[in-house]
Amino acid sequence: MTATDGGALAPRKTFLGHPRGLVILFFTEMWERFSYYGMRALLVLYLTQHFLFGPAEAQGIYAAYAALVYLMPVLGGLIADRYLGSRKAVIIGAVLLVLGHFTMAFEGTGGRERLTIGDTTYELQVEGRDQNRRIFAVNGDERVQVAISPEGVSAVGAEPSAANAADVAAVATGAAIGAQPTGALDPATAAAPQAAARSGFPAFTATGAYKLETTRDLALGEPVLFLALALIIVGVGFLKANISTVVGALYEENDPRRDGGFTIFYVGINLGSFLATIACSYLGIKYGWAYGFGLAGIGMLFGLLTFVLGQPWLEGRGAPPVPVQGRSILGVPLVPFFWIAGVVAVIPTWLLMQRHEIIETALPWIAGVIFAAVVGFTVFRLKGAERSRMLVAQVLIFFSVLFWALFEQAGSSLTLFADQSTQMPSWFNAAMTQTFNPGIIVLGGPIIAALWVWLGKRKLEPSTPVKFSFGLVFVGLGFLVLTWAAATQANDAFRVPLIFLFLTYFFHTIGELCLSPVGLSMITKLSVARVVGMMMGVWFLSSSVAHIVAGIIAKATATDTVAGVVTSPELALQTYGSIFGTIGWTGVGVGVFLLLISPLLKKGMAGIH
To answer: Which PROSITE patterns does the record associate with it (predicted)?
Structure first.
């Protein structure tokens, strides 16, 4: 039997009515997403708590990382389409991902923070990784629990004085000192009010009378961190788009099972995400970062083994467009060339991640030039229905940037909000809040899909522009929930109940289910056939830019931290409430505007729903 159309073959054996290769791809993608989302759940917390990056810097690193993760598959897809074929590209990507995730498990010494009062310097040490973290000032055998607020440094447990009377009262009432929930005080400290005084540590030192200095392991720890991120970025570039291509190659063009196959495939994505954010978050927060990241690496290793050992079940799908035997680039055989190229590509990516501000500055400009060129091509080279459909596609891509910029706060500002401003049960932690999205998708996705079918049978299904507007309104409403909760529902420690963060994710996920499934479909339906590939590239580029915009928003929520702990929980909550209110009303307002112009856009779609 011979390959046709880049490796698509007539189906042979099936499993539960689908090509049995779908089983291999389901579990490969499930484990790949397990590794990706497991690492994502921990990343911003790891940056702020272990490496002691400030929240703004950490969110900038995360934004640059996520932007490149969405940009690289454009290049990986081109390489697979022209040279390697999807299967070989997936294997290269999977190997790089395994290396990247296991490299993340190398913690190094991270960051160190030193407190100098007078002539004495203390190293600040933090116990714990959840919301009950405690800060200790250590100098030799001297070890004192401290609380740092905008007013100054207090020795927790010191005898009352005019300067620290409010802190001592907080201990008595169980309220918070700075970012320290006093219910979690070290028992010895709480039981001995004179402990700090005996140690010689000042009961209170006002801001301005002490000095804080942060250092990081620039020789090994930080470079290894960025190397791990670079390996993951390049690995995702080779794997992400191409494994979906292999799924499509399992089916003939008009096979009625195709949509069902992709639905099963997407269940694997969300199952992997759900399991990862529970397991990796639990291990990472409870036992140590290396355990959480290491489990993500094990998951990706399972994915690689599944794909390699399952090759016979793929029955030749995803083969190169032209056999690779005898082909070379610069005298190097094709497959070894791209193995080398993949490793070499890690180097500039590693350098860029260490200068993430370059990505934040350059990418929007590059995207703007490309988008302007696409608009120019549409206006001056196309006519009639082709032009109007392409313009509608570009308008919707523009609106999607705002949606994803708001939605993707999940990996950055919403994770830090969970850590800094949300009441957590003892069995739950901030990273685990990212289970809400995949869990709701698994439960609610079939309901939304059935709703569209039910409405479609009655000729009431909303058009694509209307679905996009719903997505924007729902993502905006999610943030308004937190704004209201921050203003009215916070406790004495300036934390809101977890249910409100869950409701935010609920609204965001409903918005995602309205917009995301129709996004790629919209591109293929509205684009002129000869430039579909280019428009797909623009779609992924817009998602990449959205993460840069998301980073700008997330940075605006940042407040001061010491040793990864906010110095003013009250200010942190107020800042979150203000920024979330602004972007929430923006999402709702833009969504309503899109809804109002949707009849015009629908007309421009020229018969496409």
So the answer is: PTR2_1 (PS01022), PTR2_2 (PS01023)
